[in-house]
Design goal:
two-stranded antiparallel sheet; alpha+beta
Length: 108
């Protein structure tokens, strides 16, 4: 479960880094696409074994709200949807980085 949360954190941080890179096309591409590739690989590493083994991962954190705890769980059904999402994100990040290399010289 920690790998999945780390993947989401890397994806968010990389997106913010790409946004802050602004007009520096190579740095923005590296931050955005690089973090998407790394996050997708970590997400696949977290959700793939759950899909094939059937062993659920869960995280329960105490939370001071009336409903109780903050709980996250990856079971076989959610892993069934996460694996294609992360695989497609990986392929899109790789393609997108190559696409952005061609358009970096035409930006104003």
């Amino acid at each position: 479960m920690n790998q999945l949360l780390l993947a989401l954190g890397i994806l968010l941080t990389g997106g913010l880094g790409a946004l802050l890179a602004g007009r520096h096309a190579k740095l923005a591409t590296f931050c955005g696409a690089g973090s998407a590739v790394l996050a997708s690989l970590l997400g696949l590493a977290a959700s793939g074994p759950v899909l094939f083994s059937g062993t659920a991962l869960h995280l329960i954190l105490p939370w001071q709200v009336p409903a109780g705890n903050f709980a996250l769980q990856i079971d076989r059904l959610s892993a069934f949807f996460l694996v294609p999402i992360f695989a497609l994100s990986l392929l899109c990040a790789i393609y997108g980085s190559e696409y952005l290399k061609d358009t970096a010289t035409t930006r104003r």
